[in-house]
Design a protein that fits this description.
Strand content of chain B: 35-45%
Largest sheet of chain A: 5 strands, mixed
CATH architecture of chain A: 2-Layer Sandwich
Strand order of the largest sheet of chain B: 2-1-3-4-5
CATH superfamily of the largest domain in chain B: Response regulator
CATH architecture of the largest domain in chain B: 3-Layer(aba) Sandwich
Number of domains of chain B: 2
CATH class of chain A: Alpha Beta
Largest sheet of chain B: 5 strands, parallel
Oligomer: heterodimer
Order of helices and strands of chain A: HHHEHEEHEEHEE
Distance between the termini of chain A: 47 Å
Number of strands of chain A: 7
Largest interface: A-B, 27 and 27 residues
Radius of gyration of chain A: 20 Å
Strand content of chain A: 15-25%
Shape of chain A: globular
Number of helices of chain A: 6
CATH topology of the largest domain in chain B: Rossmann fold
Order of helices and strands of chain B: EHEHEHEHEHEEEEEHEEEEEH
Number of strands of chain B: 15
Strand order of the largest sheet of chain A: 2-4-5-7-6
Radius of gyration of chain B: 26 Å
Number of domains of chain A: 1
CATH class of the largest domain in chain B: Alpha Beta
Chain lengths: ~220, ~230
């Protein structure tokens, strides 16, 4: 009897360990969804700038290496400084602006000071990526991307807005909106009840509104 | 002959690389730079070009689907940062597939493929044919369109082409059978001539290069008929 009781406890403990491992593996996979296409596009744009001997070249290479260093080395912990995540998004946006004739159509507002609040790494980038993929990349004339990031009393208020363009992807087997589904899964796993997410698609404009309690 | 091309890419920096490369190649001429596939479709419906440098990932209509929508597409060189689209690109019989970023040397290779394909298409219409003939222990391959005339000399024939002469053990009768009737005509017991090489006909003679060739009276009527038809 006592032996069985011990075995049950042991198997319960093992199940708990497995579940934790599964959850961690799942999180790693979700994090790993940062788009490799972005990297090749950026390299192509850097190549073009270098060909032209543009003064932007060196600056953009720095932005890319900061971004890579952040993704590869600084996002291994569960939480990172919000200011680092903001700097990362800023780099990402500046690199994406190289892809358009109209960089003025891309606006990113964020506070200068956010104290030492922490956030799960690479969570906001899913929404930013999505703006560029369906907004800027989905139209050549009327594209726009507007991203607002505010912090009040330890609550992150993050909003994105972009035109709904049409991207004709040759990869048909890839379900669209995969990035947003992953983002939602991660939010659930990490923040549970402490976040609110609204996705509003109107005829021409897509809005994301995300609140996270970072305290 | 210049190779006319258009660039279809929605990203300005990608367009710039192609423009720079093309500017270094005088045989290429850019007719238009278009930033989406719909504009490209309109353009191609109204203009004829030899080759399209075509991005794949674009708003509204991808490069792949643009090609699928064209009834009679020009030569296509896909340009993309994504290798996973290559298979579909080649299924569409694309001439080449450039992975961004690509070097000038790699671009050159694509242009060479394009010009090879273009010249094949040009010569390919009537398949270039040859007269294969044995002479002085060699098997000669002579372009039919280079042959001026053939003269018999006993058991031999002298084939005059592009300023050269080959003497072969052969009969005019055999050659007359083997050469296309629309291009060659036996004007005399001893001569087969290439109709499109005739400079003039005067009396019972005609001139090819600087050689005067006799025309049999019984062949003259037929010869004049062939000449005027051509």
């Amino acid at each position: 009897m006592s032996k069985d009781w011990f075995a049950l406890l042991e198997s319960q403990r093992r199940i708990a360990v497995l579940e934790k491992e599964k959850k961690e593996a799942e999180l790693d996979i979700l994090k790993g969804q940062v788009n490799p296409h972005f990297l090749f596009n950026t390299l192509n744009n850097l190549y073009s700038l270098a060909q032209k001997k543009s003064e932007l070249t060196s600056d953009m290479i720095l932005k890319l290496s900061d971004l890579m260093r952040y993704v590869l080395y600084e996002t291994t912990s569960d939480f990172v400084e919000l200011k680092d995540e903001i700097a990362f998004i800023e780099n990402y946006i500046n690199l994406q602006k190289l892809r358009t004739n109209n960089p003025g159509a891309v606006v990113f507002n964020s506070p200068n000071q956010v104290g030492h609040l922490k956030i799960a790494p690479l969570i906001l980038i899913h929404f930013v990526e999505n703006c560029f993929k369906h907004g800027l990349k989905g139209d050549t004339q009327n594209a726009f991307v507007k991203i607002d990031l505010k912090v009040q009393n330890g609550i992150l208020d993050f909003a994105t807005e972009n035109n709904i363009g049409i991207l004709d992807e040759p990869e048909k087997n890839k379900p669209s909106g995969k990035g947003l589904i992953n983002a939602k899964k991660r939010l659930d796993l990490i923040y549970g009840e402490k976040y609110e997410l609204d996705l509003i698609a109107d005829k021409n404009v897509f809005n994301v509104h995300l609140n996270i309690d970072l305290k | 002959m210049k190779i006319s091309c258009i660039i279809v890419d929605d990203e300005p920096l990608s367009q710039d690389v192609l423009l720079k490369y093309i500017a270094e190649m005088p045989q290429l001429e850019v007719k238009a730079v278009l930033d989406n596939a719909i504009h490209a479709m309109d353009y191609l419906n109204q203009h004829e070009v030899d080759v399209v440098f075509l991005d794949i990932n674009m708003p509204k209509l991808s490069g792949v689907n643009l090609v699928k929508s064209l009834v009679n597409p020009p030569l296509i060189v896909f340009t993309t940062a994504y290798p996973q689209f290559a298979v579909e690109g080649f299924e569409l019989d694309a001439t080449d597939y450039l992975l961004k970023p690509f070097s000038f040397e790699r671009f050159l290779k694509a242009v060479n493929k394009v010009s090879d394909k273009l010249s094949k298409m040009e010569n390919g219409k009537p398949e270039q044919s040859y007269l294969v003939i044995k002479a002085d222990k060699k098997l000669h391959r002579i372009r039919q369109d280079e042959i001026m005339f053939i003269e018999s000399a006993g058991d031999y024939v002298k084939i005059f082409f592009e300023g050269k002469v080959i003497v072969a053990h052969e009969t005019l009768k055999n050659l007359e059978r083997n050469l296309p009737q629309e291009q060659f005509f036996r004007v005399h017991r001893s001569f087969i001539i290439a109709l499109n090489k005739i400079v003039f006909i005067e009396g019972n003679q005609l001139k090819i290069a600087d050689k005067m060739i006799p025309v049999s009276p019984d062949k003259k009527g037929a010869l004049l008929g062939l000449i005027q038809k051509g």
